[in-house]
Amino acid sequence: MEDKAALRRTVHQYIKQMNNRQRVDRIIHQKLFATEMWKESQTIAVTSSLPLEINTSPIIHEAFEAGKTVCVPKVTEQGLTFHIIHSVDDLETGVMNILEPTTPPTMKSIDLCLVPGRVFDRSGYRIGWGGGYYDRFLRTYEGETVSLAYSVQLVDQVPTEPHDLPVQWIVTEKEMIQCSPYLL
Asked: Residue 160 is part of which domain span?
């Protein structure tokens, strides 16, 4: 099995070779918006995407249009904090050039957390950027989790460590994968 760094590099190359990413992003967005978890959620957590990730700006826009509360994470020394934003004007460039919120942190309960990642397997395990921020957050999070991924980001098996936690769902342009064993 390849190590995490090698898997990240391989998947980065696959994504860079995609020539239809905007169209694929729209397909993935529409699949997400059609789910019951999206429709029923009142408060969502979503990161501002990086260049090789599925564009989350349309998701944030759709959430605002649907009257949902949008929480965006910020990396702090203590881990991730989530902040309600009311528009994209509440974001500024932060750690790793990710847009982060300028609003105060919230304790509001999050119904649906969109968990970013670089590489995924069908069991819901993921390789992120290497900071472990989401794994620490997910230990105490009780809502639904979903990751958005291009099908080229799926591998047979992600190397895991004891602290790794799977997401419940992965949405790709080809399928909706129910992953994690702790679903009700």
From this structure: 4-178
Q: Residue 76: which pLDDT band, with cuts at 50, 70 and 90? A: confident
The tens digit of pLDDT for each residue in 117-169 reads 999 999 999 998 777 889 899 999 999 999 999 999 999 999 988 888 899 99
- Count up the domains in the chain and report the number: 1
- Triad 171, 177, 183: Cα angle to 5°: 115
How does DSSP assign 148-159, residue by residue? E--GGGB-S---
Q: Which residues contact 161 (CB under 8 A, 6 or more apart)?
A: none
Question: Which helix H or strand E contains 88, and what residues bound it?
Answer: none
**Do the Cβ atoms of 124 and 166 come closer than 8 Å?**
yes
DSSP 39-69: HH-SEEE-PPPPTTS---HHHHHHHHHTT-E
The enclosing domain of 51 has a CATH number of: 3.40.50.10420
